C-alpha cells in the first residue's frame, strides 16, 4: 500500500491510567493510514507509567513527525486539547483517542471531504464498538449525515463521534475551544460551533473501532449521574440552543434512565445503539 502525507495534524492526549498496549494499537493505526499527517501532537497529561513511556519512545524513534508535549500535572482532557490545538501547525486537525483504532482509510476520506468542501468545518463518521479485539464488534453508533439533521439531532443527543472528528482549527478557536467547566466538553463544543454557523458533516460509514467496556454503563448510573444530567441540560438551555420544553423532556428521559437498575439500563443502551 503506497502511503502519502498531507498538511494536517493529529491531536492525542495520554494520561497515567491508560493501557500501554491500547496506546500502541492506537498509534500504529495513526501511522498506518493511506494518508498520513505531517505531524502528530501527543500531549502527556502529567507523569505517565514507565510502560506508557516505553511505547511512546519506540514511536518517537521511528516517526519524526511525532511530537510529545509533557505537562507536569494531570489537568484533564479539555485543557490538554486546548493547548494541543494551539500547538498544531496546520489548520486541519484530526482528533484521535489513545485507546481506539482508526481504520486505514479514515484520514484520507475525512481530509478529502474537507479539501473538496471548504464551507465545511468539521467532519466525522460512524464508529464500531468492540470488546477486547476489533473482531468482536458489539454495536455500531450511527450519527446523522447532513448538517440540518445534525443540528436537530444535537438538541437531544451528541451529534458527532468525538474520536472520529477532523476539524478546522480556526473554527474551533473561534468559539473558544473546549470549555472545561462544561461536561461533556466535546458536546458543548459542537453546540457552540453549530450556533456560530459552522457546517458539519458525518461520513455515512464507520471509520474507527471504538474500544468499549461494559463497565462504562455500570459506572454511569446512580444519583450522581442523574443530577449531572440536570446540570448538562440546563447548561445547554442557558446557551440558548434548546427550548425550555426540550430541556424538560431531555431531563425526564435521561434522569430516569440514570436511576434505573443496571440490567434495565443496559437493555436501554443496547436498544438505542444501532447494530
Can you walk me through this structure?
It contains 11 helices and 9 strands. The chain has helices spanning about 20-30, 50-60, 75-85, 105-115, 145-155, 170-175, 185-195, 215-220, 225-240, 245-260, 260-270; strands at about 5-15, 35-45, 65-70, 90-95, 100, 120-130, 135-140, 165-170, 200-210. The protein has 2 domains: about 5-210, Spore Coat Polysaccharide Biosynthesis Protein SpsA, Chain A (Alpha-Beta Complex), CATH 3.90.550; about 215-270, no CATH class. It is globular and about 55 Å long. A hairpin with a 6-residue loop joins strand 6 (about 120-130) and strand 7. Strands 1, 2, 3, 4, 5, 6, 7, 8 and 9 form a 9-stranded mixed beta sheet that branches. The chain is α/β, with parallel strands linked by helices. GO terms for molecular function: glycosyltransferase activity. This is Glycosyltransferase. It comes from Marseilla massiliensis.
Amino acid at each position: 500500500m503506497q502511503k502519502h502525507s498531507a498538511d494536517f495534524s493529529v491531536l492525542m492526549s495520554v494520561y497515567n491510567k491508560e493501557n500501554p498496549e491500547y496506546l500502541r494499537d492506537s498509534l500504529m493505526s495513526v501511522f498506518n493510514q493511506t494518508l498520513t499527517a505531517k505531524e502528530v501532537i501527543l500531549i502527556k497529561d502529567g507523569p505517565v507509567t514507565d510502560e506508557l513511556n516505553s511505547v511512546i519512545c519506540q514511536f518517537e524513534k521511528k516517526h519524526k513527525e511525532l511530537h510529545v508535549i509533557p505537562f507536569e500535572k494531570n489537568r484533564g482532557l479539555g485543557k490538554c486539547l486546548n493547548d494541543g490545538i494551539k500547538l498544531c501547525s496546520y489548520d486541519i486537525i484530526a482528533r484521535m483517542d489513545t485507546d481506539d483504532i482508526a481504520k486505514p482509510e479514515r484520514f484520507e476520506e475525512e481530509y478529502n471531504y474537507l479539501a473538496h468542501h471548504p464551507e465545511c468545518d468539521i467532519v466525522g463518521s460512524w464508529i464500531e464498538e468492540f470488546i477486547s479485539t476489533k473482531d468482536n464488534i458489539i454495536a455500531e453508533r450511527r450519527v446523522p449525515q447532513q448538517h440540518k439533521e445534525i443540528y436537530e439531532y444535537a438538541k437531544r443527543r451528541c451529534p458527532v463521534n468525538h474520536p472520529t472528528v477532523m476539524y478546522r482549527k480556526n473554527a474551533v478557536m473561534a468559539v473558544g475551544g473546549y470549555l472545561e467547566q462544561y461536561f461533556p466538553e466535546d458536546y458543548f463544543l459542537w453546540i457552540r460551533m453549530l450556533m456560530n454557523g459552522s457546517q458539519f458533516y458525518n461520513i455515512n460509514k464507520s471509520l474507527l473501532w471504538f474500544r468499549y467496556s461494559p463497565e462504562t454503563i455500570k459506572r454511569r448510573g446512580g444519583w450522581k449521574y442523574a443530577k449531572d444530567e440536570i446540570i448538562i441540560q440546563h447548561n445547554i438551555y442557558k446557551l440558548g440552543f434548546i427550548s425550555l420544553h426540550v430541556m424538560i423532556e431531555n431531563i425526564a428521559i435521561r434522569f430516569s434512565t440514570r436511576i434505573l437498575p443496571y440490567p434495565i439500563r443496559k437493555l436501554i443502551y443496547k436498544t438505542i445503539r444501532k447494530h
